[in-house]
Every structure is written in C-alpha cells, then in structure tokens.
Amino acid sequence: MGAGGGGGAALQVEAEGAADRDLGTAAEGAAAEGQGAAAEHLSASSVAVGAAVLGADVGSTSAGFSHRPGTGSGCAASSAWPEGMDPNSSFCLIIRLLGNPKKSRKEVSCFRFEKIIDSDLTNYNDLVASIVEEYAPAYLEVAHLQYYEEALNTFPEIKSDQELMTMFKKHSETKSVQMFVQYCDPSEPYEPITKYVQPNNKPSQDEDNYLQNPIPENEHVEKDKHYFREDVSVDESEDESEVEEDEEVHEPNHAPNVEYDREDPPMIIGSTYPNMNEFKLAIRQHAVKRDFEFDTEKSAPHRFTSHCKRKDEDDCPWRIHASTNDDLCTIVVRTNPFDHDCSSTNRKKKVKNATKHWICEKVKDWLIEDATLGADELRKKLKEHYKIKIHYKRVYMGKLLALKQLYGDWDSSFNNLYRFKSQVESCCPGSIVQIDHHTINGKIRFRRIFVAFKPCIEGFRVGCRPFLAVDSTFLTGRFKGQLASATAVDGHNWMYPVCFGVFDSETNENWTWFMQLLRQAIGSLLGLAICTDVGQAVMTGVKEVFPEVEHRECMFHLVSNFKKKFHGKVFDDHLWAAAYSRNPYLFEKHWVAMEEVKPSATAYIRKWHNRLWSRSQFSTLRKVDSVTNNLAECFNNWIKHYKSLNLDDFMDKARQLIMIMWNRRRKAAKKLDASVLPHLKKRLNAMPRELNLEVVESSEIVAEVTALGGSGFRFVVNLEERTCSCRQWQVSGLPCKHALAFITSLSDAHIKNYVDSYSSVDTFRAAYAQLIPAMPDKSQWPKSDHGFFMHPPLLKATAGRPKTERYKGCSDKKSKRGKHMCPICKDYGHHWHNCKKGNPGDIAAMMVVRDPPKRKKKTTKTAESSIVPCDDGAPTRMCFPPRLAFLHLKSLEGTSSNKGKKAKCESGGSKRSGTGSNQLVALSIKTSMPNEQTNVPVKVGAKQKKKEHVTKIPMVPFDSPTMGTRSKKINPASPAMSTRSKRRLSL
Predict the structure, then answer these.
(1) pTM flag (> 0.70)
(2) Residue 925 pLDDT class (50, 70, 90 cuts)
C-alpha cells in the first residue's frame, strides 16, 4: 500500500474487479435462464482471473495508464462523441472512485466509471457536484480530485478551475484522462495518491486458463431449491461464516443514489438498492410490513440469501437471493419466485427482524426533532406506526446508534470544542470561549468551559439593567455536569442570556472560575446586582470576585428552607409581605409581627439568611425589584430540552437559540416608533383609571397623595427627583400609583416623560443591535492547533437510574397518588389497611396474617442541616431591626392608659403614628449585626423588685399559632393561654 492511504491497493482490487465484471455478464445471463446458483458461484469465483482480463484495459506503460480514445476500456473515440458535443473540447474522464480507506472493505474500496465532459463548459465546482450527485459520499465527507500525469508519473491534485484547465491542456492530444476521486473526512488529514501498483498482465501459474472447464456451472453441486420444493435434506455447510444480524457491515461510501419506497420496499426480481446495508434494512422493513420473519442463510458483503422462518412449521416456500451488480456496490434482487403462505408473526413477544439498525433508521427523524426522547416514548411511537412491540433494551440500543450517527462520537465531542472555539473567534471577534482541562493518569481530560458572545456582552452593557441572575442546572446526557448561566433582563422584562458555562460540579473553585471570567467579560459596572440561591459555592464565588456588588438572595429558596422548621399563620401573613415591602416602615412592621410571636424564627433568619431579600433595602440604581431568582430558572427551562446533547452540539445549539431570539427581537424593535415600550405605556395609562387617591399639591413638582377609604397612608411625590416615599418608583424605575395620580392631575405632564431610560425603545434596540454570528455545521469548523487530544471527563458512578428531572423541593407540587398497588383491590394510591374498595372480609383476613403497619415517626429535617451558613465574617448585607423593636413600635401606637383603644389597635386595623398624623413614621432604631448583642437598659422600680421572681411573658395576639385551646395555666416556657380566658397578659 502506498502513501496515498490505501489508494494503490484500492486500484489493484479495482483491476481485479474489472475481470469480475467481464465474466459477470455471463453470470447474469445464466441467472436469467434460471440458473441463479450457478450465476452466484460464477460471479464469486471470477476474481481469480482478473489480472488476465485487465490487460485489455490497462496499457503497457510504466505506470499502466497509457490510453487512446476508442481503444482499451471502451472510452468513446473521437469520431463517436455524443451528438452535439465539440470533439475538439470534449474529454473522456476515466474516473476511479475511492472510498475512505478507514471505513471501506478492502474487497470493494474502488470502482470505475466514465464521464464525457466539454472542457469549455465545465468548471471545477460543477465537475465535483456532478460526481457527488451521482455517487453520494458518506455523512460529512468531502471529495478530493487527482489525475495521472504520464510524462512525470505523478498524481497532481485539482483544487481550482486553473488546475482543471491545466489538466485538459496536458491531455489535449489523447482526449482521455485517468482521474481519481477519494471521499475523506475533513477532520482527518488527507493523504493524496503518490503511486500505483500495476497488476501483472501475464497470467501466473495459479491463474492458468489452459484446459479450464468452459462451463463450470455444470459442476456446481448446490441444490436448486430456489425454485423447487423437495423434501431432500442437503448439507449446506460452507467455509463462509454468516454475519450476525446486529453486526454492522461497512459498505463503500460511494453508493449511487437509488430511489425506492422506504416504508414498503419492493422485493420483486430486479429491485435495486444502493448497498448491502440499505438492502438489509429494506428487507427487514419488508418483513415488518408483511408480518413475517426470515432466517438468514448466507450474509456476505456481496450476496444475501434468506428464507421464511416458518419454512418447517407452515411449509412456506418464500426465499430470496440478492447480490452485487457490476459496480460491486449496488444490490439487485436476483431470486424471489414465491409469496408467503405462512401465518402472521406480528403478535409475538420478540420481533426478530426489528434489529437495532432498523430501529436506528426509524427513530432518526424523531430524534432530530427532539433528542431527549426516551426509549419508552420511542417504543410507543414504533408501536403506533408499525404495530409491533419491541423490547426496551433493543430500542435503547437503536436510539444510541441513531444519536451517534446524528451527533457524532461522544468521546471526540469534547476535543471538538476547540474547533468550536476557533469558529466562534473567527466569525465573532471579541467573544470569549475559555476551555480548561487537567491531566489524569497521563491523559488530558475536559474540565470546564465558559462561553460569552460579543453581542451579548455589549448588549448587556448598553441596553440592560445592571442585574444578573446566576444559577446552574444539571446536564442530562452522558456527562452529568452542571450548566451555569448568568442571565440579565431587558427593558421589556424579557430574559437576556449574557454567558453560560459547563463544569463538573458546583464547587467553590468552579464558581470562582466562572465569576472571574464573567467579570472579565462585563467589566466593573456601576450599581451591579447579582441574585443567587443559598448555595455555598455560588455565594462564595460572588463574594470573592464581586465583593462590591449588591448580593441578593432568592426569596423562594429562603422560604423553602424556612418552612422546613417554622409554620404558622403569622408567617403566611407577614414573611412574603416583608419581602415585597418597599418602605422600611412596612418592612419593620411585618418583621415585628413575626418576632413577637416567634423570636426563634426571626433569629434563624438573622443568622442564616443575611443577604438582601427585601425590596425595602434594594438599591435604587438597578431598577429591578424582583425578589426571586426566576430569571435564571427561565433560562434553565428554555434550554432543558437540549441538555442531553453532546457538549459540542449543545454549545452550537445554544448559540443558535440565542441567534433566533436576537433576530426575532431585533425585528420587533425595528417596528417600534414610540419613545417608551408599548406594553409599558399601555399598562401605565390604564393604572390611574381606578385610583381612589387624593392629591394635595405643595408645588408644581411636589405633592402629598393620600389613600381614601383605606389605611389613610399619605405619601410624598417629587416629580423632579422622580421619587415617592413608598419607594416603588425609585426601585422599579416606573411611576407608582401615587406618582401617576399626581402626573395625571397636571395638565402639562405626560407619563412617558417620567419612565426610566431602561424602558425606552432606544435602549431596547441597543440591546439587540449587534448580530449573533451564523455558523456552518461542525464538519466545516476550522481545525484547531491546540496540539493534543482532549479526552472526555471521568464519569462519576451513581446508584440507580440516571435522572433527567430535578428533585422536587418541599414547596413543589407533588402527585397526590402514588404508585403503590393495593394487593386487595389492585388499585393504586393507598395501602391495603386503608382500602375502601375491597372486601372487608379480605381486609380482616389480611389483618390476621399481617400486623397493621406501624406508623412511622415523623422526622423533620432541621433547617440548619439543609442550608448553607453565611457567618463568614463579612459585613451583614441585610439590616434587621433589633430584637426588642416591637416594644418601641407599640409605644408609638398609643399610651398604656387607653387600654381599650390599645386592644382595638392590636386586634386589627391600621397603625398610625402617635402624633395623630397620617404620615408614616420611620423608626429611628440602630441596626445591630447578627452576632452583636443589643443592651437595652431597663429601669427597675420598687414594686418590680418585689416581683423579680415572676417571669414576664411577651404579649401574644389571638391569631398566634402558639395559642393553645386546652391550656388553663400559663407555662412560662410556652406562652399559651386558654381561649376561654377573658384577660390578656400584658408586660
């Protein structure tokens, strides 16, 4: 074999195949006369005399390619050009098509065909396209053209129109060109043909034709049971080994295009199929369609013979034989004389002919639409379309095979990330694609990757509010890594992906690495806020890389941890209300209501959840008042259907999804001609229509707005500073209802003039001004020169079946009905001792046999074990009122002498300041740190000294969950009292 990657050997075999084709003509004639077996034997044995026949095709020059038109292999002579073609500019191309030497069989890695073209009307691209269209390559392969130059005994390569014209000029006298076309994978280096081994024209001793039997079919002893049904047992043992049904047979990649009905392929004599693999899939589909099974007698690369499986049971005569055509690739049905007369096999538990290769072809289209389809869903689809029930494992193996053919090999997908990096950097300069790897036992393995496109970075800086929601979700493919993302929000309150990355697990190191690259991408933004969950690793990453930003904590995760330990109506009424309170006074009011009922609950929040989670303490620079991390969850839900793809395909798919989003929103922005986004303008114009507010102007820019018929709270609105004492305008950037009431009361004021610039159309257009790059498929990505092969990461062994859905939290909705089956009524959702549908006698008998199940003790997981401590010495982000702040709040609500009014105020209604004004009074309380002790001096009187042994109990409202219904005595450790008591405890 020469340096051409098997080209010389391929040409040697092609020469031997020429003899097979010459003798194959006689074999086809014999088959037409009913001698199918003899024809098969002749075609298989004719290779032995190929070298003798080759002399008619190949000349006697040193390279063996001397050729003249009209002689040798039958190329058209100059006097016999097709009608309408100019003899002076026409050329006969004798093309030898070479398959990929790494994928093709050595026996049929080359075949020859002729092509007549006009040099004045043909260019390089048209010539390649005509060859590829007639003989299609394999997936992702490209064609390379060479020709033989007799004078220099070389094989120049053709890559352009100029080199093609040079080839025509060198062969202007002979009008015949020996060309070679080879299909190769572009990811592998192409090795051109450098030499050719000419076969010996003289017959050797083994190939001596002297006194050879002129009619060898007369000596063929195989029983012709193709056509005659006889009860004679014949030993059919041969030296050829049968190919297993699930064994993949590599066919030449230059199969011609042959059209046929893939849902109902014909099996009549003369039916043609591109290659042996296609024929095997077609006959299996034919068997599934006709409800029968077949057994394979002979399965070789050049022939296939099978008979009905119920040949012995039902005496079915069906039998088929197919073999290769002259090109040693195309399969032709030679024999199929009888129809089936056996019974259906559709209802069998095991369908033999539905192999994993057949399943692979059938499920490809479904996996292209949704690559996350599981084996169970594919089984249902196959059952619906083909009326057969296939075993789960076989469907799963077929799915894996289809995914491999569609998306490539999983092992090489990680090394392909460097090609993705090169492609992104070439078509979108300024983008950041950072790949990190490490060495384990001498192998370089993937570790993590970070991707941030330049349009996303610039759009975030100029068109989005300085707010990022950071979170991660798990991948569902073979690599169970974590997909981290940083998501912003545009003026339309739409999700805006900024960057994303993948690493193996959520560790401090990985999140710090991600945050460092995020800071490198977006820089230092004024007033940046980052919202995360309560995970230790992500919070550590924010603290180390972004120590100056406003770190917000997701309220949903806070409540999820809080409700594991604390319950009660007071928390239902005040916890979320405290988070949504924009005014500090309202926040302190809800906080005190919880603290006076359950001080341990507020102490828990002080200790474990001290990042910002209340709107009352959000900065006014961000213009984002969201208290949850739902923005990041939106990104996770948006990308979840593609998390099972190979990593290179996932990165490309994520880029494509962002590109589609950018294009859609950019088109929508071009249609807007107003100054404010239409949906915001419509909402703000509709809000003042049903307001019951009284506006009292202090000047043309300042006014007092009082709520009528309700709490009577009064707020101060300043149009010049765009502020309201409720703080909604400052935090959200949109005028609150108090500001709208003042604005609409003025004749020369317009609402659109008081909306923040982040909600303008110009800012929205700037966010999507730049284009996300369009990229070709991964087969055309440029080669990377990173100098090593990056192996996939080591997979962590996990117990049980791999998860594709996240674990449900305590606050998620769960199914009410379980999967436990009752042994009495055979129904689901209850146990036998609670069965209401079964026979009471059966339940009583079961009770005798089995003891009633013991009730398990309810164990509540402590909140401390499920959350992450933040007591790291850093300044406290959340400012809480002191523990005795509710005493000061009560003192502001009235004097202690007016007990009736005080009781009425405690029981419900609005709380106003002690001065009689409706204006909210802010508490002037010094905020303490979580670990700081607040000393409150208490003056002790003479009467109090006599009663020092009496433990004072804080006041408890009637709706407190700690109020007992049966207690008649006051327990100092548990301040509960009977509902029949007519007196309340007081301090």
Answers:
(1) no
(2) very low
